[in-house]
From TrEMBL:
Superkingdom, taxonomy of origin: Bacteria
Example of a GO MF term: nucleotide binding
Native species: Christiangramia flava JLT2011
Transmembrane segments: none
One Pfam family in the UniProt entry: GFO_IDH_MocA_C3
Protein name: Oxidoreductase, Gfo/Idh/MocA family
């Protein structure tokens, strides 16, 4: 079992602590939180060991799980990697792309593995159709959330949209060619609503919308590709696959047939895979343990986390143009 330590015991940090404690792939040795009053409270309530010194926690652990505000990611991650310890770090990986590049180089130098917490990659609805998404040419993503003061210290692109950016980059095997974006600040100092249109070199276009002041929650993406439409509801954890094939000569009465102007007939049919329930956060932590033990590439590498951050920051920069 890998000895795991957690840095940060806020809302998400407490979830990570609980899951690491119940995992049979880790031995949770304790946590460190800069807010000593909160650390004391969490230790007393849940029985986890609260380290008073971060360096001591790093020294005792094989892996450090960083669940702190983004602005602190770079400095603590550097400390973890420089100590030769493996790093799981919540998204976004760092505050700037340059910081992320430095962490990548440092991890390579010290021979440690790193994974970024882009949890939607482990959403069971997405996982059930990921291998069916092949060369999508149009993608539409909506990520809408009711207002929550937590997270409003960063633009909605880094708070919410970055999830969809990472998912899209994982299925579109092409470089970004062009992008246009707009953002509006409604209640925060940074944009609360944002829309981005990303054009890729291979012709794929992705249209992303994110809002944190909506009346209802929505996390849905649609992927359009040759002869197929794939819908993923990340919130409800359901998916839909609509495919087309050449229509038979003698279709049955209930077959759905489309005919284009050239007279070509296609039959529409549904091919929905089953979705197996899971705990996505536990899965991302445990696959990282597997990557460490088996010396394999993590599911979401530091480089992939850096690329998602780079695109997110380019979107934010375009707001002021």
């Amino acid at each position: 079992m890998l000895k795991a330590g957690v840095l940060g015991a806020g809302h998400l940090g407490k979830i990570h602590l609980k899951l690491l404690k119940q995992s049979d792939k880790y031995e949770l040795i304790g946590f460190y939180d800069a807010d000593h009053e909160n650390a004391k409270k969490v230790a007393e309530e849940f029985g986890y060991r609260a380290y008073s010194d971060l360096d001591e926690l790093i020294a005792d652990a094989d892996m450090i799980d960083v669940v702190t505000p983004t602005l602190s990611h770079f400095e603590v991650a550097k400390k973890v990697i420089s100590a030769g310890k493996h790093l799981f770090i919540e998204k976004p990986i760092t505050n700037t792309f340059e910081e992320a590049e430095e962490l990548i180089a440092l991890a390579e130098k010290h021979g440690v593995k790193g994974q970024v917490g882009h949890v939607e990659r482990f959403n069971p609805a997405f996982q059930s159709v990921a291998n069916r998404i092949e060369n999508p040419m149009f993608i539409e993503a909506h990520r809408l959330a009711e207002f929550n003061p937590r997270g409003t210290d960063v633009p909605v692109v880094l708070d919410l949209m970055i999830h969809d950016i990472d998912v899209i980059l994982s299925v579109v095997q092409s470089e970004v060619k062009n992008m246009n974006a707009s953002g509006v600040s409604v209640i925060s100092d940074t944009p609360d609503i944002a829309n981005a249109r990303i054009e890729f070199e291979n012709g794929c276009v992705a249209n992303l919308t994110a809002s944190r002041i909506s009346m209802k929650n929505m996390r849905k993406s649609r992927f359009f590709q040759r002869d197929a439409y794939i819908s993923v509801d990340f919130l409800e954890k359901v998916c839909e696959v609509v495919k087309m094939k050449d229509a038979p000569e003698d279709p049955d009465d209930f077959a759905m047939i489309l005919q284009n102007a050239e007279g070509v007939k296609k039959q529409i049919y549904f091919d929905n895979p089953s979705v197996s329930p899971n705990n996505a956060i536990l899965d991302e932590l445990e696959t990282f343990a597997d990557a460490i033990v088996e010396d394999q590439e993590p599911v979401v590498t530091l480089s992939q986390g850096a690329k998602a951050l780079q695109i997110a920051n380019q979107i934010i920069a375009s707001f002021s143009k």
